[in-house]
Amino acid sequence: MHIQIRRVGRRNCAAEAARIRHFICDTQFNVVSMDTEYPGTVYSSADPKDRHPAAQYALMKSNVDELALIQVGLTLSDVSGNLATLDNTNQVVVWEFAISDFDPHVHKYVPESIDMLKSRGLNLEFHKQEGIHSHEFAQMMVYTGLVQVPSSDTRVQPDKEVRWITFHGAYDFGYLIKALTRRNLPEKLQNFTELVRSYFGRHVYDIKIISRYCYDEATGKILCGGLDEIASKLGTCRILGDRHQAGSDSLVTF
């Protein structure tokens, strides 16, 4: 099996959107592993020990409202774990969308985070010149069937419902909700979770949370750690790309 991470910008977005729409709407490849990249977090909690959901959401909202999305990675599979392949080939495509919103001269960012992303191959000039705006990406998500439109009366058949898989995905969904609604995140956590449910449906899974209920067979301890560490403990590894590349991270999340 050959896997290609396809970088998507304004020149090929329409063609790749049509391909994703085919996988989502015409086949059973409706399990979406997703990752985003963004310029760090500029706000931190006054009390790092405060793990109350409302406090954590308020912190996330402050950062997402202030910062700009940089990259989105998508990997599609079916419920049996088969990756989506191009017609009549054995080639798997993972999509990495270059988002053009971020401007270091305008937006806040954490310098160390941007330096790290650059060390992983981020080309800000490409994003600026060839990327797509987050609003365009949101429109693409609606067109492809990746997300539902809350105001629509159309009901998705259960076997066609998209299933979302993330790793530590609160910020990921925060940036996507911001793009879909074209406004800052709602003040209350409950309203945010309602938006996530409305757009992304009933099946949203976070591997970071699920891992808290799983045990490492080698040590008998609860699974913990970052994406690569947990993947290694589960007997898998990163086979393409690097950490903090949205396409590669979405593939590892799968």
UniProtKB/TrEMBL annotation:
GO molecular function: metal ion binding; poly(A)-specific ribonuclease activity; RNA binding
Nucleus recorded as keyword: yes
Cofactor(s), by name: a divalent metal cation
Catalyzed chemical reaction(s): Exonucleolytic cleavage of poly(A) to 5'-AMP
Signal peptide: none
Enzyme Commission number: 3.1.13.4
Enzyme class of the recorded protein, top EC level: hydrolase
Family annotation (InterPro entries): CNOT7/CNOT8/Pop2, RNase_CAF1, RNaseH-like_sf, RNaseH_sf
Assigned GO CC terms: CCR4-NOT complex; cytoplasm; nucleus
Pfam family, one: CAF1
Keywords in alphabetical order: Cytoplasm, Exonuclease, Hydrolase, Metal-binding, Nuclease, Nucleus, RNA-binding, Transcription, Transcription regulation
Compartments, record wording: Cytoplasm; Nucleus
Subunit structure comment from the entry: Component of the CCR4-NOT complex, at least composed of CRR4 and CAF1 proteins.
Family: Belongs to the CAF1 family.
Function of the protein: Ubiquitous transcription factor required for a diverse set of processes. It is a component of the CCR4 complex involved in the control of gene expression.
UniProt-recorded name of the protein: poly(A)-specific ribonuclease
Provenance organism: Kalanchoe fedtschenkoi
